[in-house]
Amino acid sequence: MVRVTRVHAGSIADEIGIVPGTELQSVNGRLLEDFLDWEFLTADESLLIAARLPDGSDVEYDIERTDGEPMGVELAPPTVRRCANRCEFCFIEGLPKGLRKNLYIRDDDYRLSFAYGNFATLSNVKEKDIARILEYRLSPLYVSVHATPWEARKVLLNNQRVPNIVEQLTRLADGGIQFHGQMVIVPGLNDGDVLEQSLTDLWNLGDAMMSVALVPVGVTQFSHLYNGKSMDRDNARILLDAVHRWEARALAERGDRWVYGSDELYLLAGVPLPAFEHYGEFSQIENGVGQVTSLRKRVRDGLKQLPRLDGRRIGVVTGVSMAPLMPELLAQLHEATGATFDMITMENSLFGPTTTTAGLLVGADIRRALADRRDLDLALIPAETINDDGLFLDDDSFIAVRESLPMPVYPSYDFIDALVPEGDSMIRSAA
Ligand code: SF4
To answer: Which residue is closest in CA terms to ligand 1's atom 4?
Structure first.
């Protein structure tokens, strides 16, 4: 059963009388378990839908529709499948106590992998799930592989019951499913021979394995499980050598790079980030692969749209890892606008100094960065720090933070989004 949360006015669902709170039970005789069933089973033109209305009455709708006209319902989010692993490097295991409950949920859900690109290990996938993936052709899936040798993977995922990932991927690939893979590299556990074997196994899946990202392990000061080696510059360089070797082979044999190092890997290694063309379709950008290069391009492309802001002083709050990359971007923004951009680099007060990502800064960090900066006309903060409910990771709200500060504050993904005048823009309100 799936519950309707919203019905679009004038849609098929609206016309036949489905209302929010309706429980959709089956389509053409097949029971509905979640949003995937609904999405795929309603692809037919002739639909017999069994439902229970909020008043408890059972109804059946016999529908003929044409041209894939949408049904027009929004569904309650599915109960997320929990992760059965206990990876030593798990970011969630490393979260400090006292944060809001849903931050501690460790999801490992192939459905979210297909629908939203979340990485899943497939550790908790059952026979029935494999059949569903194949029947609905849930492709591509984003898979946290980490290592293909079975024993190494058991250690990495801290789970003796993980299935053999090569067998799982091979079976799915034989059924036409494709993947984007990631390997979080933990020095001493899955670098060296394990990395080589893993890349070989993934390569042998052919076109089914569309790309592989290598991401260096990152741990917060609160990680209580991980006591292995951290990723240093030398390790990062060795990993990048492997990336270069494999990408040369992939370019020669399949015409794309196939394997990518995450931005963090290049930064740790002290190696310049590749150009925009390097990343092709940016298929792993959400995984931190090509984000900086994409940002550079968006800034470059947006400069022409910027207004003159001579005499203004604009604060830019960022994290430690982005700090070395900022001056180049801020110099371009200065040249295009005439404004002075002050970079304010903050350590993360919640996760500790080893967490350097700008997007993980919390409300308290923003307050500390800007509270005494009466010299600023406005300030930009990383938009990624705020969730859809307007909250930072420490539960501080953006509105409360903004109201406490002496200058207008705007979340921004790439500066251009915040500085281009549009309607009631920040520039005007800061004037
Ligand atoms: S797979 Fe590992 S890293 Fe991912 S949520 Fe589970 S324990 Fe954490």
So the answer is: 90
pTM of the predicted model, to two decimals?
0.91
Segment (H or E) for 329: helix 326-337
pLDDT 10s digits, 266-287: 999 999 999 999 999 999 999 9
- Ligand 1 center from residue 106 Cα (angstroms): 6
Closest atom of ligand 1 to CA, residue 83: 6
**Backbone dihedral angles phi then psi of residue 391, each to the nearest 5 degrees:** -115, 145
Ligand 1 neighbourhood includes 86 CB (under 6 angstroms): yes
Cα–Cα distances (Å) from 334 to 314, 342, 377, in that order, read: 10, 10, 15
Q: Are strands 23-27 and 2-7 parallel, antiparallel or unpaired?
A: antiparallel
**For atom 1 of ligand 1, which residue has the closest CA?**
85
Region 394-401 average pLDDT: 97
Task: In whole angstroms, give the CA distance from residue 110 to residue 172.
Answer: 12
Q: Rounded to the nearest whole angstrom, what is the distance from the C-alpha of residue 121 to the centroid of ligand 1?
A: 8
Does residue 22 carry a pLDDT above 80?
yes
Residue 238 tokens read as 């060795």
